[in-house]
Amino acid sequence: MAFLTTISSNENLFLQKGLGNGFPLPPKTSYSHHLNIICMKIQPSHVAKSSVSQPLQYQEVASKPLNFVFPDFHFDEYMKTEAKMVNKALDEAVPLQNPIKIHEAMRYSLLAGGKRVRPVLCLASCEIVGGEESMAIPMACAVEMIHTMTLIHDDLPCMDNDDLRRGKPTNHKVFGEETAILAGDALLSLAFEHVAAKTPTNVSPDRVVRAISELGSAVGSQGLVAGQIVDIASEGKQVSLEELEYIHVHKTSKLLEASIVCGAILGGGHVNEVERLRNYARCIGLLFQVVDDILDVTKSSEELGKTAGKDLESDKATYPKLLGLDKAKEFARELVAKAMEELSYFDASKAAPLYHLANYIANRQN
């Protein structure tokens, strides 16, 4: 099939191997019944009971029920180009100025590397609805500022107490706990200021306000903070799949969802487009955490660039712990399939980056 030639050789997607060892997509019948309510609520407890007999390779699923046939698309090159643009914008958004120490700390974590998945998702969703990247660059930066804030704060001794992040000492190990806390606070504040001040004038004020509201909701007490506080309260306790879902949907998925939804809003997307992208985002947001849980028990600290086995050590509930490794992978397969189903609504050439990003999240190794 011609589509197979469009995927770069080192993506190692589940066309042949998939996530981990043997991770092909399931038939559509496996997920259509169990994930048809994903727009409202993702239920891994139901998915875990499903059976995947005679799993199909991706091209079979794509060409029949989902009708995905993409033109030539060089994903690795796309990611490098987009990440370079985002890094440049972030560098300019947080110049080294007085007070020097706080800005050094902000820049240390913000510019520490990473694939920039969230800002790239923001830019891709803006373009899929017909917008230009320039409309969403400030929001893409804001999302990464907030994500960096969460990493700085998560690593603190009072939270996850981690020493390593992206292969480097964590912020508080370099600058001290007080400065690390303030650096996170400053990045959070700057994120909203940056969107309000830097979004170009060809985006209507109404859309800017809607996007800011979406972002604020994702971070606050009904979003990321909600997931974090329940996660902390659940350490060392027996947690149900429903409770684990709540933690991850809020702690991880909400910011990914905001990245995509805000990009679509700023790009001029209409209601149906925004909601389909929201559904896609909820799938890959939870997928991101399921894969993270799997990697935590299957990879080394050197491979991850952060301390491996931390969840197990702190007795946190994870999908492999509650479902078993094979069932956790099965749930991830179904999330990928549902995400791609949502993309079938859009023009194939414009959807290509989001399709490949879903595959990247499913098959990332760190």
UniProtKB/TrEMBL annotation:
Entry's Gene Ontology molecular function annotations: metal ion binding; transferase activity
Cofactor section: Mg(2+)
Family membership noted in the UniProt record: Belongs to the FPP/GGPP synthase family.
Keyword field contains Transferase: yes
Pathway: Isoprenoid biosynthesis
Alphabetical UniProt keywords: Isoprene biosynthesis, Magnesium, Metal-binding, Transferase
Protein name in UniProt: Heterodimeric geranylgeranyl pyrophosphate synthase large subunit 1
Entries under NCBIfam families matching the protein: FPPsyn
PROSITE patterns (alphabetical): POLYPRENYL_SYNTHASE_1 (PS00723), POLYPRENYL_SYNTHASE_2 (PS00444)
Superkingdom field: Eukaryota
